[in-house]
Amino acid sequence: MRRLASTIVLAVCLYSVAPAVAQEATPLVIGESTVVQSEILGEQRPIVVGLPAGYEAGSGSYPVVYVLDGPGHIHHTTGSIGHLAQNGRALPAIVVGIGNTDRTRDLTPRSDLDEERARFPTGGGAENFRRFLVDELRPFIDEHYRTNGGSILIGHSFGALFAIDTAIHEPESFNGYVAISPSLWWSGEKYVKAADELKADHPLFSGALYVAMGTEGPTMNPPFERFVEAIERNAPSDFVFGVGRFPDEDHGSIPLRATIAGLKSYFARIGDALDMRQVADASELERRYAQISESMGFEVQPSEQAVNQLGYRLLQGGQAERAQGIFAWNAKTYPQSANVYDSLGECLENLGKREDALANYTKAAELGARIGDPNLPVYRANAERMEKSLKAGG
Predict the structure, then answer these.
(1) Beta-strand relationship, 2-3 and 26-38
(2) In this predicted model, which residue has the larger pLDDT, 275 or 129?
(3) What are the phi and psi torsion angles at 203 (to 5°)?
(4) Are residues 168 and 309 in the same domain?
(5) In this predicted model, which residue has the larger pLDDT, 81 or 29?
(6) Cβ-count burial of 128 within 10 angstroms (0-12 exposed, 13-18 middle, 19+ buried)?
(7) Which of 98, 104, 95, 53 is nearest to 76 (CA)?
(8) CB 323 within 8 A of CB 314
(9) Domain boundary pick from 257, 272, 287
(10) Do residue 233 and residue 322 come from a single domain?
C-alpha cells in the first residue's frame, strides 16, 4: 500500500476575545489526515491519525486504537483515550480513524439469508476489508508511527458486527475489541450461534472483548443479550470481557459513553500498576511496567512525561536521592529528549552536585539546539546560570 497524499494537519484555532486586546490564535492539532491506496480494495482510503500528547517531542512507542467510521468518531475517541491516560486509567495511544467508501460492503460479512442479500446488495465484503486492515493498513501505521504491537479495534453498529466477526474468526488480528451496538440480527443471528459454539480454548479468550448496547428495540436488544449469555457461558474465568448496558442511550447516542467504558475495560487488567503515586524508586517503576507488559501481551514503557512527573513529585517531597534515580532512568530510556537531561540537572543541583548538574544542563542545551526543542531558551539559561555559579565559587 502506498501513501498518496502528504500529511495534512487538522487544526482548530483557539482564541479569546477581549476589548481592545488582540491575541494571536494558537492552533490545537487534533490529528493528521492522509489518503492511502489499497491494492486489496482497489481504491483510495482516507484515514485520520491522532497522536498522544508528547508524541512529537518524545521517542516512546504506543498501542494503536483503530476506529471504524473514523470521521464520525475520531474526535471523541482521541479525547477519551487522552483523558483516561492522563488520569492513570489507560495507556496513551495512537488513534487511527478509518474513513468509508462503501460502508455496508466493508463492514458486513456475507449473509446466509436471500432476503438480506437482496436488501443489502453491496454487503458481504468484510473479509476483503479485514485483509486491508491487517495486511495493508496496520503495516503502514507500524512503518510511519512508533507503535509497540498493542492494537484495539472499535466499531459501532455494522462496525461492531465487523469487530465481532473478526474476534470470532480471526481473533489474533487485534489484542482487543470494542463492539458498540452490534447488529447481531445479521444473517439470522449467526454470531449469537457462533458465540454459543465457542470452546474455552478459543483464541479470542486470550484477548479482550467489550460489548455495549443502549435501548435500541426488539431487533437489537434480544440478540445482544443472547450473545452476552453465550460468551459468559463459554469463556474461561480469566477472560477480559466487559458488558455495558446504557438504558438512557439510543443507537446514535451510545458511542461516546461506550467508547470510554470499552477503553477502561480493555486496560482494567493493569489494575493499580499505572498509579505511579505509589512508586518510590526506579526499580519499582521497572517492576510495575514489566507487570503491565505481561498483562497486556506487548511491551509497554512509561511515557517520558509520566516519569518526569514522578521524579518531580519525589523531588518536591524531599526525596531527592530517589528522584535522581527516576530522572536518570528517564535519561537512559529517552536519550534523544533534551528535557530529560534538564530535569536531571535540576535534581542534581538540588542535591548540591553542581558540576554534574552543569554537565546535564549543557547536554540539554546542545541537544535542544540540534533538535529544535521549543524549550531551548530555558535549557541555555540553566546552563549559563550554573556555569556562572561554578566560576564564582558560589
Answers:
(1) antiparallel
(2) 129
(3) -60, -25
(4) no
(5) 81
(6) middle
(7) 95
(8) yes
(9) 272
(10) no
